[in-house]
Predict the structure.
Amino acid sequence: MSERELSTDCAPSDRALAALGWRIERFGKLDSTNDAARAAALGGDRGPLWVIAEEQTAGRGRRGRSWASPPGNLYASALINDPAPVARGPEIGFVAGLALHRAIGDLGAGDFALKWPNDLIWRGAKVAGLLAEGVSLLDGFACIVGIGVNCLVAPEVESQPTADLTRALGRSILPTELFPRIAQRFAEALAEWRRGEGFAEIRAAWLASASGLGEPIRISDPSGVREGLFEALDARGRLLLRRAERLEIIEAGDLTFIGGGSTPLPGGLANS
């Protein structure tokens, strides 16, 4: 498929998702699946919709960071209209993270864990990242959840080791094999979340799959760098950092493990 060309093929997995009310649009190349989903929402599309690209030319991660997006990996964004009260919108990142972890488990994978706030790691190396964004509309708001997974390629950038599913599982994992599992698990997790009413259950399941819980970590954000123990997540999904005899609430930031079970593998460096 050429750039911006929409596939008309309908795989069995597409029909299963259609039965759940989801549509899927596939492209050979896009600037960004999140941007395409945003444009769809602003153009009147209310979803639920998945936008998938074989390659991105301007993929984005958190805080506007570049997300390297060569062919061979999965780049998909879900568009959901009015998923929950606006104040509960940030919780959807944990819903998606849990769904991703479960989908990877469906492939028979082990040693995978969730890293706060939006990464999936394997033995300390980043395999996938999430980017949840809100869109204000005249008749409400929509949420876009972008998922990028290293299936065949682990791009090298600064700051963090990376790995891919093919390396982790010891067999070739294609985006076409992974996506139906993610989409199914995401639909299930959304139902479990119940527009925010079930976030306590989502949070508990997320923490059960989390890396670094109870271990020393470093948090970097615009206010500086702080170190302490990863105590838990609060009722809103904010990280609780124990420092001396007090707890600090971390709204957002970059988490780095200090020793412990997050020893990185040799290899590429992750995009974030």
